[in-house]
Design a protein that fits this description.
15% strand, eight-stranded mixed β-sheet, two-stranded parallel ribbon, 12 helices
Length: 343
């Protein structure tokens, strides 16, 4: 048997006996539960739990979803993602059906147990090196997203992921948005790789560092653009602005908390009349600009996104494990500060 945290009947959102798809809390809880279902698919595989012993199915069947495909890593055959289809047998306990997804593609994060750990850590390292887009796991994920979009046409598709899985979902969402396909995305604890400025307690010092960084980044961006005579008609960053992924972050989780400062700083720069500088700076990273300056190609950092719904969990966390965990996102007593940022 698995731990209590793996058992839906012990730790799942059992309070959702009636589902209202227009309720943002219900949508968030269900998306998080499907991501947990992917975690449990891999844990069931590791523990060789099958049929009646398997713990994964309850995480999607409770919400009238069925599993139609598992995404396997080609290096170790671990399950890192899944495609779910919404298939309600009855609408008696379901409201707002027109707001429900037809399909959800969900990705798990790093698993610290079993034989998937080594491969997951490799993927974490690729993320830190801004190379997640070059991995075979992402190629498999991207192929699944493209194939589903091609197969079901205008049907509503959601992307969902946690931690490393949210990085996968964000990268897939950005790729699709650049070709005009906007998919709703639920990104739980999305990693933001940068110096931990948000952890600085002194607000003046923190704001000063961010302003200095913006000035340097914007200045270098202008210099690099001039030297390369870049005349592209369309800015790919601006092209992404119609995509509004939902980012679920916890201030006590240093892996994702920098998103809070990233978006707040943009707003403050607008307020002090430096919005133009920040709109340029926020499209670039110093590392990427340096690579461009020496003539090398560099993929834009994953965390650079123009628009987002930022949902901050203001409920106190006991420790980092709880602040970074997926379980927090379906708590019925969750307190969220919701902010919308449009580029």
């Amino acid at each position: 048997m698995g731990s209590e945290r793996e058992d839906f009947n012990l730790t799942g959102p059992l309070h959702l006996t009636t589902i209202d798809w227009k309720n943002v809390d219900h949508r968030r809880s269900i998306a998080a539960s499907l991501v947990q279902g992917v975690y449990m698919l891999e844990r069931d595989r590791q523990e060789k739990r099958q049929e009646a012993q398997a713990l994964a199915p309850s995480w999607w069947k409770f919400f009238h979803f069925k599993l139609i495909s598992q995404l396997l890593d080609d290096a170790d055959s671990s399950i890192f993602g899944a495609i779910f289809e919404f298939n309600p047998s009855s609408s008696n306990c379901i409201q707002g059906m027109d707001e429900s997804p037809c399909y959800v593609i969900a990705f798990r994060g790093t698993i610290t147990k079993g034989d998937a750990l080594s491969r997951d850590l490799q993927l974490d390292l690729h993320f830190l090196q801004n190379g997640l887009h070059r991995t075979s796991r992402f190629e498999i994920a991207m192929r699944a997203v493209r194939n589903l979009v091609a197969a079901v046409g205008n049907s509503t598709i959601w992307l969902a992921g946690h931690s490393l899985g949210s990085a996968m979902a964000m990268l897939a969402g950005k790729h699709m948005a650049k070709i005009g396909v906007v998919l709703e995305a639920f990104l739980f604890n999305p990693p933001f790789f940068s110096p931990p400025i948000e952890r600085i307690k002194d607000k003046k010092v923190k704001h000063g560092i961010r302003i200095a960084s913006s000035l340097i980044t914007a200045g270098l961006a202008v210099a690099v653009k001039s030297s390369h005579h870049n005349n592209r008609a369309e800015n790919p960053f601006v092209a992404l602005s119609a995509w509004m992924p939902s980012l679920f972050v916890n201030p006590a989780d240093h892996i994702c908390s920098e998103y809070i400062g990233y978006f707040e700083h943009r707003k403050k720069m607008e307020e002090i009349g430096a919005g133009g500088i920040e709109r340029l700076a926020t499209q670039h990273s110093l590392g990427g600009l340096f690579m461009s300056a020496i003539g090398k190609q560099s993929e834009e950092p994953l965390h650079l996104i123009p628009s987002a719904n930022l949902l901050i969990n203001s409920t106190p966390s006991r420790d980092f494990k709880e602040a970074h965990g997926i379980h927090q996102w379906w708590r019925p007593d969750l307190h969220l500060d919701v902010k919308r940022y449009k580029y």
